[in-house]
Amino acid sequence: MAVRTLNISLPEELRDLVVREVASGGYGSVSEFVREAVRDSLRRAALDRLEALALEGLATPEVEATPALWRSIRERARRADRSTRRR
To answer: What are the domain boundaries of the chain?
Structure first.
């Protein structure tokens, strides 16, 4: 994966938080901290989408839970996950 530079502006208190996290040894660099924050955001979005799909399924109890239905649900969840990873 190609690496490109992105400059961001942060309020002073957020900048200080990032610097403290890196200084504490939790992250090797500011870039590593930001990459992990972005990944966490993508994971949360995928989980939110999965929860929405599950709630949608629970709202339609008249549907019989067949193996084909479960395959369809898994495929929709995979597509939702892939689309969030591409952002």
So the answer is: 27-85
